[in-house]
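Sat 14:20. Reprocessing the chain from the morning session after the first attempt stalled halfway. Input below, unchanged.
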Amino acid sequence: MMLNVRDDFPVLKRIINDKPIVYLDSACMSLKPRQVVEAMNEYYVQYPACGGRSIHRLGEEASHAYEASREKFARFLNAAEPEECIWTRNATESLNIVAASVRLPKDAKLVTTTLEHHSGSLPFVERAKRDNLEIEVVEAKPDGTFDMDDWKNAIDSRTKLVSVVHSSNVTGTVAPLKEIVEIAHDRGALVMADDAQYAPHHPLDVQDFDVDFSAISVHKMCGPSGMGVLYGKLDLLKDMDMFLVGGDTVADVRYENGQIIPEYLPPPEKFEAGLQNYAGAIGAGAAAEYLQSLGMHEIEKHERALLARAINELQSMDEITIFGGDNIDIKTGLVAFLVSTVETAHDVATFLNDSHNVMVRSGAHCVHPFHYQHGIPPSKGTNRASFYLYNNQHDVDTFIQAMRELIAASS
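Finished this time. Tokens:
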């Protein structure tokens, strides 16, 4: 059974050049349902005050809504404690916090992959450079999968931190996270999962995966932009170094004998310095609640049905090369592809947009190493059509028709 939620997304009613829009760029930024917008507007209209700082009625209402949203997100992830969910600006900030702040021995080794978004690799590359640590890169196959023997060889007794993308934003393939976590934990390493693409589309139970850290971008899961979540096991968060310091991170700052002596709060306040994005957090909670009301398994099934139809049609076109394989059971709802008769991915995206209001992503998707690994210059790039809960069969058919027209015009 397909989901029927399009009325919740007002932008889908837009008509451009006498045609409706076909939005297939949710892997970059999802559309926002009215329920999320209304929750944020309620903050701005009813209690637009400082949470946590002011004890008057509006401040207390803001504080309550802010922390209630943290609890909603903790339920969404099945975190053991709400305090394990840290509000950040995006998954990039979440990944940087872990890369910069986890305490590591001087001879530690880090492990990452060629399939990571730049935000999932560069913070760890920079940490390795900063502390003169070894970093090993596990190469992904062209279909976006990994050879588990490569993981077993890469994660050794010196490895202390692994950064792995749970679901690739290029190939859509889902990594065998449980197996990677098991190998890492057996050898004394922590695992940082980039769940920016996984969390919006699949059930994510952080306790079941036993992952140590998880990074999430709320703007990819029907929530507001400029909001992210860092999940971390509470004992690990307590042990990490500070990332930012200042207002709202302190229990007290004493002044004794000419010295400023801070006493810092535990998580989550430890990592939430300064005035927070209260409306964004409230919107994030509303987004988590909205997705749970639909059921993550239902969202997963809906997307895979659309993806199967799209891949089946694209595979019938000789001019198209698909990345990420066709195993729908280990894929998130996106497909990346090359068109042999068109010079660059940007040219493909421009044609689809101008001819049919079909909106796809073009470029290297912030995953240059994977493109270089497979001989694709980032300047040429690939195209990515990504499906979400509000897309339907008509969207897929319009996309396929536009692709056929593109190939006919460029051959």
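The two ends are 38 Å apart (CA to CA).
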